[in-house]
Amino acid sequence: MSKILITGAGGGLGTSLRKSVASWADSVRLSDVTEITDCAPNEEFVACPLGDKDAVQALVDGVDGIVHLGGMSIEDTFETILDSNLRGTYHIFEAARKAGKPRVMFASSNHAIGFHTRDTELNGDSPFRPDSLYGLSKCYGELLARYYYDKFGVESVSVRIGSCFPEPVDRRMLATWLSPTDFDSMIQAIFSAPRTGAAMIYGVSDNLETWWNNDHARFLGWKPRDSSDRFREKVYAKPYDLKPDDLAVVHQGGGFAAAGHFED
Ligand code: NAI
Ligand code: 15L
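^ thats the input. predicted complex w/ NAI below
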């Protein structure tokens, strides 16, 4: 795989993923709205607002794979989600269609299924239950991925990322945590697989507690190596005042499911 584009490269995940991608790709095109100034010799930076269709087309031209992380990463106004996530992800798939069909990794989210209760084990066929406008935008992104494969053959993997941070910081994250190292190896597997079709997988480490069955993701040859369990004592030592029947505890999406509707 020679040239990989990472959108949202200046964000939390992009910043941690960059080093790993630069180690196996020939070259990496980093993109965001604010400039990245510390490019390695095989990295280049291209500023690009995802809401600008022509700019996204120029960004995608000439790449062999796209890691699409860019966009609003939490709940926000409809207008913000519309521009960054709905228009932005449409522009990425449309540009991919016109530019030789590079494979796309789409950063979906557990908030596409956040209204499922925690006692429900989900798998590759479980229905969407978005918990926010943000979660809805991730359902749309997954469906775009499906459409662009069925109609045009653009391959993709939509990853319903749980919580990808250096360590789990609360009890919910003991189930949803994806370690940055497991994320790195997952991305490499996605671009090494001979074929992906339009796959959806859960982005989660090998945690003792889990709500997601990833058996359908085996075809990628990716195995998470990390587990949140080594952080369990530390997390349980923190002050905690949620009750078992609080909406944030009942639902997989936690606080996103419990929050009121986000209005301007
Ligand atoms: P982040 O908020 O740190 O990074 C997102 C990046 O996208 C930012 O650098 C931002 O400048 C850029 N961006 C936002 N709107 C843009 C626009 N209109 N045009 C161009 N760039 C724009 O988010 P993070 O944590 O790095 O997440 C990356 C992706 O993974 C996001 O799509 C997020 O929804 C998804 N995700 C992350 C999870 C996590 O645990 N970190 C969990 C589930 C999904
Ligand atoms: C997400 O989708 C967000 O991007 C991230 O900031 C976390 O809130 C994560 O989900 C989570 O559910 O922990």
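The radius of gyration is 18 Å.
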